[in-house]
Structure formats: structure tokens, C-alpha cells
Design goal:
With about 500 residues, this protein is mainly alpha-helical. The protein has a single domain (about 20-395), classed as Sodium/glucose cotransporter (Up-down Bundle). About 80% of the residues lie in helices and about 0% in strands. The chain has helices at about 10-35, 40-45, 50-65, 65-80, 85-115, 120-125, 130-160, 165-215, 220-230, 240-250, 255, 260, 270-305, 310-320, 325-360, 365-390, 395-420, 425-445, 460-475, 485-490. α3 (about 50-65) packs parallel to α13, α6 runs antiparallel to α7 (about 130-160) and α7 packs parallel to α18 (about 425-445).
Length: about 500
């Protein structure tokens, strides 16, 4: 193992220049996207014009945010190498399988109903208008929780690398994202996500190479075992088996039950674009997740013990990389954060403005008015999330996992069954969403955000059990939907 640690002097000006160039590109795309917005359809779905590369990298950049790089990189530092299994589950279940199982079917169902949002598609699939406000509330809650986690991770990075107060770091992030998301909608978001996916790929690859040059690979793992004990390099590591399974589940289920990610399947040009997106995003994901879950534990050798979880990755980047590298990796983490936050804040705004306001309370509202309302609500969601992020009520991973678990409990059963099971009913969908969502909240309040008081059983597990069981049982006990309607939907 090499113990070389380069000097830190002088990295800030170079890193800032690289980052400013990157931010300028984001703003320019926002201005360009604003000119492309002609209607509510183009703001919400981009007119279904995106090809495979844009869809694949946008999906990847939104799935893997500062929550992964900062939050779970820090968690791997604490827990050990057993989180490599999380990386494996993310590649297969979170990326490859979700596109194979959902991709073309979601795109086809959206086209049949002309839905602007995932909630709208599900409501029409089950003929259940009563489901709309329930799912809208779930989306708003989950997206705000997710946005808080992402904002916290990005601001932490700025705080450590540039020595600026957490408050001003938040201001920088919300200004840039708020501008391009609000002005350009999904069009700006997709093209910025495409750029961000490229930056993330090379940034994480660069981080991996620098960590490898300091620790080695096999030799690094051997030294981890000698210094920290076998528990750090064996299964399940410093957490319980239930804890490890919970982390695998909550991270891998994200795209199955998070509307901001399923929404990217709406915008694909056609089935061919989806077919090509699958291998692209799978390879991209492999580099990203293994890079992070490798770097996290190796930080124990470079930084030593005792570093705050949320500051592990920023400190590691600052310690081992030269100025140019810091600028690139900073941009990659900012890219991850911005792409995810753009998607989450946009979906939160969609849920409130379209699903609640236009479709539930003020049905006479025109698409032009809801477009304006969406932009205003998007700003409000970002500012509100920033205020809560500033309070730093919990660590990044905890905030993220509660929001993701709540959304997945409500959405995964009714979305998957809506595509593959003809017997699902409106009552089943309604009770699934309500009880699944409440199960996650109650479990988290009683036993901790990560199941600390329940043997590491995270709320994602009871949430999924209750959600699936409720949907199936209630559907079997209630009147089925019209057979002709179901036949047309499922054909």
C-alpha cells in the first residue's frame, strides 16, 4: 500500500474554475430548454422525443445521487466491504431488471392513457380517482424527503472542499437547480442529466483510480482485515443480516417505486430506444456503484477512523486528489445531486400542481395555468426542502431511506400488478397505497429510520409485505374491473 498524500495547497482555485464551467453549462441548457417548452406536454414529457443515450444516462444520473456518493460511501466506511452486495443488487435489480420488467410496458401504458405523471397513469389504469390525492401526497412527501437528503449531501461536499458555510452551499445549489428545472422542465432536466451522467462516469472512475493507487485492491482488503478485524471484510459485516438485506432492498427498489425515475420511461422515443438504453445504463451503473463501495471502506486506510459519516467522501477526495481531480470529482458529485434533485423536485411539483390542484380540486384549470403553477410550486418545493436540510435533523442515508421506503411501499405493488395482473382493483390499489405508506412511517417512528431498534429490519421490509398483501387480498375480495377495459389495457 502506498501512503502518499499530496499537498492540499492551491486546489481550491482550480476546482472552482472547473466547477463554474460545469455550472455555466447547466444554466445554458436551462435557457435552451426554456425555448423548447411550448405546452404542458412538452414541460412534463418532452413530447416523447428522447433517444436511448439520453434516457439511459438521465435514468442513471437520477438514481445515483449524492445520497449514494456521500451518504452510502460514508456508510460503507462505517460498515465495511459487505456493502459490495448492495452494489451487486443495485446493478441487477435497480438497473437491469427494472428496465426489462417495466420499461416498454410503462411506455405503452402511458401512451394509451396520455398520462403526464405516473400517478395519473396509475389512476387511469385502476379507474380510481380517489387514489389520485393519496398518491399525490405520497409523492410530495417522498420527493421532499429525497430532495432534503440530496441537498444535504451536496452542501456537505461544498462545506468540506471549499470551506464555505453550509448555508451558502445550500444557496448555490438551490439557485442553479431551481433555475434550469423551473425554466426548462423535463427537457432541461433530461439534457442536464445526460451531461451529468457523463461527468459522473469519469469523475467516479477517476476517484477509483486514485484510491487504488493509494491502497491497492487485494492488498487493500487484506490490510483492512488486519487493521479493523475480519468483521469489516466478511459478511454481513458490522450490521445484521436483516440490516444488509434492508439496505439492498431499499436501494434496489428505488426505480420500481419512485415516480421521478419511472417517469423517464415516459419520455423514451420508442421501444427501440428502451432496448438500447438497457445495456448502456447497466454498464454505467457498474462503474458508479462499485467505484463508491470500493472507495468507502478504503477510506479507513487513508483517513483513519473517526471521520463523520457525511464527511468521509469529501475528505477522501480532498486528501488524495490533485486540484484538477478535485474539480472533476466535485462536478461529478454535484452532477449526481443536481440530476436527482431536479427529478425529485419536479415530480413533487407535478404531484401538487397537476394531480392535486388541476385534477382534484380545480378541474377547470387550463394546461397553461397548471404549467405556470408547476413552475411556482417547483420553486416552493426546493426552498422548503432547503430550509429543512439546513436544520440537519438526521444523516443523509436515513432521510433518503425513509422517503424511498414510503414511496416504494405505496407504488411498487400497484405499478407492477397494473402491468402484469388483470385481477387488481381500485379498492386494492387505494388500501395498498394507504397502509403501505403508513406502515413505513409508523415503523420508522417506533424502531428508528434504519430499524435500529428492530434488529436492523428497515421499514422497507414491513412496508412491502403490508403493501403487497393488502393489494392482493383486497383485490380478490372486491369487484374486478370491467373485463373489456382490462383486456384493452393489457393487450
Amino acid at each position: 500500500m502506498q501512503n502518499y498524500v499530496p499537498g492540499l495547497e492551491g486546489y481550491i482555485p482550480t476546482a472552482i474554475i472547473i466547477f463554474v464551467i460545469y455550472i455555466a453549462a447547466n444554466v445554458a441548457i436551462g435557457i435552451w430548454g426554456m425555448r423548447k417548452i411550448k405546452s404542458a406536454d412538452s414541460y412534463y414529457t418532452s413530447g416523447h422525443s428522447m433517444g436511448s443515450w439520453a434516457v439511459a444516462l438521465a435514468f442513471g444520473a437520477t438514481c445515483y445521487s449524492a445520497t449514494l456518493i456521500i451518504g452510502f460511501g460514508g456508510k460503507a466506511y462505517d460498515v465495511g466491504t459487505s456493502l459490495m452486495w448492495v452494489a451487486a443488487s443495485n446493478i441487477f435489480f435497480m438497473t437491469y431488471l427494472v428496465w426489462v420488467v417495466l420499461g416498454k410496458k410503462v411506455r405503452k401504458l402511458q401512451e394509451k392513457f396520455g398520462a403526464f405523471t405516473v400517478t395519473e397513469m396509475i389512476v387511469k389504469r385502476y379507474h380510481a380517482e380517489a387514489l389520485r390525492p393519496i398518491l399525490a401526497v405520497v409523492v410530495a412527501f417522498s420527493m421532499i424527503a429525497y430532495t432534503i437528503a440530496v441537498l444535504t449531501g451536496t452542501a456537505r461536499l461544498f462545506e468540506v472542499l471549499f470551506h464555505i458555510p453550509f448555508f451558502w452551499a445550500l444557496i448555490i445549489v438551490i439557485f442553479v437547480i431551481g433555475f434550469y428545472v423551473t425554466t426548462g422542465g423535463i427537457v432541461s432536466t433530461i439534457y442536464n442529466d445526460f451531461l451529468q451522467g457523463i461527468v459522473m462516469f469519469f469523475g467516479i472512475l477517476l476517484l477509483f483510480l486514485y484510491v487504488y493507487s493509494n491502497t491497492g485492491f487485494v492488498s487493500g482488503y487484506e490490510e483492512l482485515g488486519r487493521k479493523l478485524g475480519d468483521v469489516y471484510v466478511t459478511m454481513p459485516g458490522k450490521i445484521s443480516w436483516w440490516g444488509l438485506v434492508s439496505v439492498c432492498l431499499v436501494t434496489s427498489l428505488i426505480p420500481w417505486g419512485m415516480p421521478q425515475i419511472v417517469h423517464y420511461m415516459f419520455i423514451a422515443r420508442d421501444a427501440k430506444a428502451i432496448n438500447w438504453a438497457i445495456p448502456i445504463v447497466t454498464i454505467w451503473t457498474f462503474i458508479i456503484v462499485y467505484g463508491i463501495y470500493y472507495a468507502g471502506p478504503m477510506a479507513q486506510l487513508i483517513l483513519g477512523p473517526g471521520v463523520h459519516t457525511d464527511k468521509v467522501m469529501p475528505t477522501l477526495i480532498k486528501t488524495i486528489m490533485p486540484s484538477l481531480g478535485i474539480g472533476i470529482v466535485l462536478s461529478s458529485v454535484a452532477a449526481a445531486s443536481m440530476s436527482t434533485m431536479a427529478g425529485t423536485s419536479l415530480q413533487g411539483a407535478f404531484a401538487i400542481s397537476r394531480d392535486l390542484c388541476q385534477k382534484t380540486f380545480w378541474k377547470e384549470m387550463s394546461d397553461e395555468k397548471v404549467l405556470t403553477l408547476s413552475k411556482l410550486v417547483n420553486i416552493a418545493v426546493i426552498v422548503f426542502s432547503a430550509c429543512l436540510a439546513y436544520l440537519r435533523l438526521a444523516n443523509i442515508a436515513e432521510i433518503f431511506m425513509v422517503g424511498a421506503a414510503a414511496s416504494c411501499a405505496a407504488f411498487v405493488p400497484i405499478l407492477v400488478c397494473g402491468l402484469y395482473w388483470k385481477r387488481g382493483t381500485a379498492a386494492g390499489a387505494i388500501w395498498c397505497a394507504v397502509l403501505g405508506f403508513l406502515t413505513v412511517l409508523v415503523w420508522s417512528l417506533l424502531f428508528g429510520a434504519e430499524g435500529q431498534k428492530a434488529g436492523g429490519i428497515h421499514a422497507i421490509i414491513p412496508g412491502q409485505i403490508v403493501g403487497w398483501a393488502t393489494f392482493v387480498l383486497v383485490s380478490l375480495m372486491t369487484k374486478p374491473l370491467n373485463k373489456e377495459f382490462v383486456r384493452k389495457v393489457m393487450s
